[in-house]
Specification:
Chain lengths: 152, 716
Amino acid sequence: MATYTIFVNGSSKTVNADPDTPLLWVLRDELGLVGTKYGCGIAQCGACTVHLDGAAMRSCVLPISTISDQKVITIEGLDSENSHPLQEAWREHDVPQCGYCQAGQIMNAAALLKENKNPSDDAIDEAMRGNICRCATYPRIKKAIKTAADKL
Amino acid sequence: MTPSINKSRRNFIKVSAAAGGGMLIGINFLNCAPDKIPVEVMKAIPKEWFEFDSYIKIGETGLVTIFSANPEIGQNIKTSMPMIVAEELDVDWKDVVVEQAPLNTEWYTRQVAGGSQSIRQGWTTLRRAGALARKMLVDTAADQWQSESADCYVEKGIVKHKDGRELSYGELASQASQRETPDPESVPLKKSSDFSIIGKSKRNVDMEGILSGEPLFGLDYKREGMIYATAMRPPAFGQILKDYDDTETKKINGVLDVIKFGDKIAVLAENTWAAMKGKRVLKANYTQEGKAEDSEYHSKTLRDHLEKKSDEPLRVDGNVDKAFAEADEIFEKTYEAPFLPHACMEPMNFFAHVTDEKVDMVGPIQTPAWTQSRIANLLERDAEDITIQMTRMGGGFGRRLYGDFALEAAEISHLSKKPIKLVFSREDDMLAGTYRPASAYKFKVGIKNSEVTAYHLTEAFFNGSMFGQMHSNFPCGAIENYRVDSHNIPSNVTTGAWRAPYANFLAYAEQAFLDELATRLNKDAVALRLELFDKAKNNPVGEPHNYEVDKFVGVIKLAAEKSNWGNAPDGVYQGFSAYYSHNTYVAEVAEVVVKEKVPTIQKVICAVDCGIVINPKAALNQIEGGIIDGIGHALYGDFNFVAGQTQSTNYHQYRLIRMPESPEIEVHFVESKNDPTGLGEPTLPPAGGALANALAAATGERYYSQPFVKINDVLG
């Protein structure tokens, strides 16, 4: 066990954890931030996507010992009023079915839109390839990303 | 069915309000993006709730809570079922909050998510629940006005007298809820032309929670003092536990205990990671007691059975053997599909707290009532001692019909005497599945004078046989000599329902076969079907068949028209497929283009007859998802066993369809005033066939086995 101080959603948090504990489980079990989901544990599904210094990362394979002073943003901290253009677009298109993967989809898409404010269909496909939606809401996710991009 | 009206509901609500339950609903609701709720239309949170039946309570402010009785699995019934209640109650949807009801077999009928039946079987009950409460409110207003109910009407939760007087539901709720419940049969239901909520898209009621990461799912559930558990199960079917060594496990920081139960070993820990790590270093030895099945054995066994007739055919019209002997030509094809895992995004999990007083269960489950009775048997407890709280489910697809994970959780809590949450890793979830069984179908037809005179379908299936009236599906009734044989072959692989059981592959085989048959007969694929339907309608063969010709033809013609069937632009290759399952009729046209020599599906045009559409945008979501799921598994669903052990352990070895491979979906509903049917499953079965038929049009290649793409082809 070791003590780590990490910066999550704008505030610093101190946790005790084994160095190899993935950020995912620190968020979920220690900090109660359960919007970030466990899906595979091997960075294959994208359900656990968070932002690390603004980049989309799979938190299931990020040991807590490697986080250091990088800024972590989770779905809970994406927008203080849950009004990120993507969240608005998700409402408009009524995207989710079961909803389990959607936080990861949104976090991944948010990182894409930060890099590319007007992504083409192919660019969206390429960026979102790593995020599985078992309910297959892909057509709506794509539409919602475009809607959000239009508003940026 | 009659609505379950039980006065004890009142007591329940009082208890839960005292514990803060009533207020919590409102607080949760308000916390969901407060700036998004237009304050002028949002009723204030009531100080007191008044219940009308097991579905409705109304506060003095006019805010209405509608309980959603069924498990929410992503099919969106938590929105669409309350919409049906709200329609007959005549309230403004903005004034409604929805709460997940607890399991209660006395208050509710069929608290199950399965078979695409929630809407269809809930329809009348939900409407009556709303209509009864509405009548109690209107009668109360009429009494207060010393007038007749017939002189009153309702607009958005306000009872109005024709002379202009008004009383809101909030003002009436206290008195109205005390009235005798009217006879359900005496309360008229609305005409569909008067619907104002049904048929208008309403956003998913859990949207705000999903968008903000609230703890909605079983895996998110936490309780004070709760610890985490993982379980190690025999790695292969047919194996039993011999012995184990937990020395290394107990050295892991956070591991609290290791407990054997049956052939399984539970690792209890302070957090999920420690429980997972502890299991990883657990050493166990197993002995092979049952057969170590592998995929080659499965395939050979299925195909061997296809060469035999069953002792009792499921249906016989005429005499296929005689017709085959007299035929000009025999045309025969065999189709085969593997076992499949459900691969829900949220792995199996359940919270359990077993004490001497009660058994407290929380988690994602499609069959709470069945699970309750199974836990009662397992722990030798009274069912009344067992409460099951349903969380939102991160997918189910049939996997969460089987409460094995809840039973395991109950047993671990029982043995450890602690509140625990059992969590499956993805690998556990892939290993300990209730898989869609491997199956194979052989279609054999006799052709004489370019007409189909005989049709013989043989099924070979592990741990099952097509059920209900599936043997009388199309083209039954259209062919003089028709026979269905089925072989139910035992396997020690645990199997179960997988989205659209049987239909998910039978439809593929049938629709791919019909397409190839049409080509063989030199007929258009749609024209051949319409010819057969004509026969089934005007001159049906044998006992009644299991479909309505007009509805079936309706979707086929609609899909053909909307896809401009037969007139696709150059370079676009179309494939047709139509199937009736789960009481819903669906036709699909897949469009394939060839990009740099690679055939690619770009669009599916779909026609659906599901009766009245409750929540159009959500209905479309189910349809889109079902089609893409069907296409994804036809393309990529590769799952194999070697010596009884699954060869795919995680998503890197089990390919699911992803965004780049997903086609555009265009949907057309048949306009209907018929009672609604479900949409969770019926658009999946025809999808693979539509794709295969379009691929055949594009490349000439036919696919007789699923998946079309083997995992090693793309990821090896």
